[in-house]
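Researcher: Here's a chain I'd like modeled. Treat it as a single chain, no partners, no ligands.
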Amino acid sequence: MLDENTDAGAPASANIIVSGKVQGVYYRKFTQENAIRLGLAGFARNMPDGRVEVVAEGPRGSIETLIEMLHRGPAFSRVKDVDVRWSSPSGEFSAFGIKR
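Model: Modeled as a single isolated chain. Structure tokens:
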């Protein structure tokens, strides 16, 4: 379901796929630390093909801030692409974690 609401305070969910040199460079930990600081819930996990998947739920403006950070990544990462798919929040997450 596409979320058309662009109100920064509106609850939202984003499924984010990040490609590039994003595994083995503390990318998931970087994501978790920033998501927690922004008050978001969800997870980050490595994908078998070398990308990182991030699911973030919370205020849309906070997710947009996280997405900006994901474009930069931690020091040793090299982000090539960030694909974002917006939806309505599921409410299934109470914190932001790292999935292995």
